[in-house]
Each structure stands twice: as C-alpha cells, then as structure tokens.
C-alpha cells in the first residue's frame, strides 16, 4: 500500500461524465485536484455500457453518441492536466476525517490526503436487472444480452428488446435501421419513456409486443425462442429472435456512502444548495446525490458541478474572485 503524502484541495470520486466535468471545472478554478475512478477507463456507465447510445438532452451536444461525449470530456480534461491528477483502476474503500478537518482516503492502491471530497459515483456499483424467468445463463453475452457495446453486432439480425423505459426505447430505435427486424416486449401497453421517444417508437417499424411478460427463454439454433404470457390476461404466445436484448435497468450498490455514515435518502446522498452533504467537506453531485426537485440527467449533473466547485473554492480560498460568467481557457 503506497502512501501519497500530497495534500489535495479536492478529490473527485467517480470518473463518469459528471465527475469528469467537475474535475475539469475544478482545474479551471485552480484547485489542486485528483480524480479517482474504479474502472480502467474514464466515462462510467456511458463508456462501459452505452458508448453507441445517442444522447439527446445535453445542451449544444446534438444527438451525439455516448462515446463522443466522453471523448469531448477527455479533451477538456487534457486542457487542465497540470491541475488534475487522474487515477484509474483504483477503488476508494475507506475514509477517516482528521482533527484539522481534512480527510485521509484509503483506496485499493494507496492512502491519500485531501481537504475536500466530491462524490460523483452515479448510483454506485451496478448490475443489470435479470430476466425474472429461469433460463440457461450460458446464453448470456451471446443470444441474451444486457449491454450493447457495438450496434454493428446486430446488423441484419432479428432483435427482441425487453423493457419499457427510455433506454429500451432508444435501443429499439437505434437498431431499427440496421437490424432485419426489431420488436420490443413490455408488460404494459404504455411505455415509460420521454414523450417524443415514445411517439417516434409508435411511428416506427418496431413491432410493439404488449402487454406481455417473458416467461421462458430457450436456445433455438443460433437464436432464442421467447415464451410470452399476457399480463393480466390468458393469451400465451412465443416469438423467435437472433438476440434478446434485456433492459430492465440496474440494481445499484452505493455501499461507499452507507459505510461513511452520511445522510442518505433512497440510497442517494442528501445535499444542500451547494451540493454539500451532512458532513462538512464532503459534497455530492449527479445520480449520487439528491435534493428537492432533483432530476437525474447528465445535464443536471453538469449544472451541479460548478455549484459544488465554486463553494469549495470559496471555502478553501475566500479571497479568490467568484466567476460571474462562463470562463474561457
């Protein structure tokens, strides 16, 4: 275990899009910053799970892919590389507050010293919600998938998407022009996605299989046979597909926050208008945090980052001028 004796102004925990932007903005405020990410690359869930998913709701980023957003954020970070130290494949596992108000963080590789902490770990460690029915898990990653890394993998195939939220709808629409046939299976007639996306889905060639639950999945040749039962009805039927893409969301484990004794609400860190938690010096932004009126969007996290960073800067260096307008490099 290495000991990093350097005292950082700020440690950003979590290298997803919001954490990356926060670290960049901290660098612009001349805060001596380190960014710690448990995965071997920056980008969080967007880069690991949805690199080809189209993102529509970030101002000025016109329907670009997740991988493009991460590439842009990496380029921004490179502009403040003298101020921001990046540590990948490193998990924060312990925290100890010192008598002077600073913190000692223990990671999987070292101990490190910091004046403040900004938590941007999203919903924490994530695992996909599995199909409720029993099936042969040898199909996982082949005929049954929970992640999409490359849309091209589905070119010319018959794809069934399971789910009724934004992500499931987005994948169905993204696959429509390249797959041979796309169907979407949902247990309700009404979808839970953004209104414009639902309207686009209803006008597309995607087959809507509703309201049905999946009761069984078996291998059939190179594909799968999917058994369906009408929700609150008697109709049973089956359909075949080359691939079943399951998108029921994720189960999050934010044990980090729980272990630190911070005030939580529905597994999210409760913060005030400055994004500060119940523990002075510890802040939270993005999906890791909650407050009245919270909206869990990447764009919301981007707005929360300057609120937290500017407050941290004022607390650490009260004589520094607060920025009144957007800053140019």
Please outline the helices and strands.
Layout: E1 2-13, H1 17-28, E2 33-36, H2 44-49, E3 54-55, E4 64-65, H3 66-78, E5 84-87, E6 92-97, E7 103-107, E8 110-119, E9 125-128, E10 144-145, E11 158-162, H4 166-175, E12 181-185, H5 195-203, E13 207-209, E14 212-220, E15 223-230, E16 236-241, E17 243-246, E18 250-253, H6 255-259, E19 264-265, E20 268-270, E21 282-284, E22 289-290, H7 298-316
Parallel strand pairs: 1-2, 1-8, 2-5, 8-21, 10-17, 11-12, 11-17, 12-13, 20-22
Antiparallel strand pairs: 3-4, 6-7, 7-8, 9-18, 14-15, 15-16, 19-20
Give the CATH architecture of the largest domain.
Answer: 3-Layer(bba) Sandwich
How would you characterize the largest beta sheet?
7 strands, mixed
Number of helices: 7
> What ranges have pLDDT less than 50 throughout 5 or more consecutive residues?
none
CATH fold descriptor of the largest domain = FAD/NAD(P)-binding domain
- Average pLDDT works out at 91
The portion of residues forming beta strands comes to 25-35%
Gap between N and C termini: 37 Å
In helices, the fraction of residues equals 10-25%
Order of helices and strands: EHEHEEHEEEEEEEHEHEEEEEEHEEEEH
According to CATH, the homologous superfamily of the largest domain is: FAD/NAD(P)-binding domain
Q: In one word, what is the shape?
A: elongated
Rg, nearest Å = 22 Å
CATH class of the largest domain: Alpha Beta
Domain module count = 2
SS class? alpha/beta
């Amino acid at each position: 275990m290495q000991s990093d004796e350097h005292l950082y102004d700020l440690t950003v925990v979590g290298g997803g899009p919001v954490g990356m932007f926060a670290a960049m903005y901290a660098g612009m405020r001349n805060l001596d910053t380190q960014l710690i990410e448990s995965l071997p690359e920056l980008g969080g869930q967007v880069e690991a799970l949805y690199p080809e998913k189209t993102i529509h709701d970030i101002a000025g980023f016109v329907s670009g892919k997740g991988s493009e957003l991460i590439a842009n954020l990496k380029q921004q970070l490179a502009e403040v590389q003298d101020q921001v130290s990046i540590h990948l494949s490193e998990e924060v596992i312990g925290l100890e507050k010192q008598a002077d108000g600073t913190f000692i963080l223990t990671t999987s590789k070292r101990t490190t010293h910091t004046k403040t902490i900004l938590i941007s770990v999203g919903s924490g460690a994530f695992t996909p919600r599995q199909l409720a029915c029993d099936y042969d898990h040898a199909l996982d990653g082949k005929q049954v998938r929970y992640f999409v890394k490359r849309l091209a993998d589905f070119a010319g195939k018959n794809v069934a998407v399971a789910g009724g939220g934004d992500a499931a709808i987005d994948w169905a629409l993204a696959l429509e022009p390249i797959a041979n046939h796309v169907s979407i299976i949902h247990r309700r007639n009404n979808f839970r996605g953004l209104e414009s996306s639902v309207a686009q889905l209803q006008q597309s060639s995607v087959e809507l299989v509703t309201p049905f639950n999946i009761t069984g999945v078996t291998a059939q040749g190179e594909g799968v046979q999917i058994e369906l039962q009408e929700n609150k009805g008697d109709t049973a039927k089956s359909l075949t597909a080359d691939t079943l893409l399951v998108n029921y969301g994720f189960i999050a484990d934010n044990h980090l926050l729980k272990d630190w004794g911070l005030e939580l609400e529905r597994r999210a860190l409760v913060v005030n208008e400055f994004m500060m938690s119940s523990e002075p010096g510890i802040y939270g932004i993005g999906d890791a945090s909650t407050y009245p009126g919270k909206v869990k969007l990447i764009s919301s996290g981007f707005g929360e980052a300057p609120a937290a960073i500017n407050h941290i800067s004022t607390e650490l260096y009260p004589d520094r001028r607060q920025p009144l307008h957007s800053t140019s490099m």
